[in-house]
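testing teh design pipeline on a random one, pls ignore if ur not involved
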């Protein structure tokens, strides 16, 4: 396993949990990371991510596991579509019902064609993935008010359900970028490399 030159760690604000990512961003992004949280049920999520030098996602692999269940999903960009492969052991829905939460159904997507317009992926509960459009579109240093609307393949956690989603990123200046999806909006503080320092209500970065 190759070593990575950078390490980022975030503490969750919305629940007990954290994210640790090892990455290389010299030519695009290569990253592997782990997200842990107790909500909606205790889980550990591991991911590996590869992009082109222009920061367009090529491949994402995610594995999530908890007590009595495990799920996996792999997204690979093909010339005109996404290939989505899933795996499942045990039953996450049983664990969710026991915790008083609604079931989520199967991982993945029943129609990969709905993801065809997506260039970026967004892994729920991870602060790393907001960096993909910020870097790809040059929003960290763009003029305030610069707005970009994008389509993403949104991977929900812990279900690993994959959905198409429309997101909007707007440069605010002074190292801040506004993220919006549907009725949700958050102003992100990012460092000079476009990695999130503070995501209101979700994470704070810990350490240098």
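output:
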């Amino acid at each position: 396993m190759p070593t990575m030159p950078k390490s980022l760690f975030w503490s969750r604000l919305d629940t007990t949990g954290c994210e640790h990512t090892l990455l290389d961003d010299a030519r695009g992004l290569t990253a592997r990371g782990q997200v842990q949280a107790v909500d909606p049920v205790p889980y550990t999520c591991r991911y590996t991510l590869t992009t082109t030098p222009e920061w367009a996602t090529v491949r994402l692999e995610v594995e999530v596991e908890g007590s009595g269940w495990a799920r996996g999903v792999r997204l690979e960009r093909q010339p005109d579509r996404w290939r989505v492969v899933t795996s499942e052991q045990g039953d996450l829905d049983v664990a969710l019902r026991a915790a008083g939460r609604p079931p989520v159904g199967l991982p993945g997507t029943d129609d990969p064609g709905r993801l065809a317009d997506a260039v970026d992926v967004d892994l729920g509960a991870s602060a790393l993935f907001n960096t993909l459009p910020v870097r790809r579109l040059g929003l960290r240093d763009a003029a305030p008010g610069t707005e970009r609307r994008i389509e993403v393949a949104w991977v929900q956690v812990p279900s690993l359900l994959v959905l198409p989603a429309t997101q909007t990123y707007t440069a605010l200046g002074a190292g801040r970028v506004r993220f919006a999806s549907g009725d949700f909006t958050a102003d992100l503080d990012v460092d000079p490399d476009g990695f999130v320092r503070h995501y209101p209500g979700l994470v704070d970065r810990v350490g240098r």
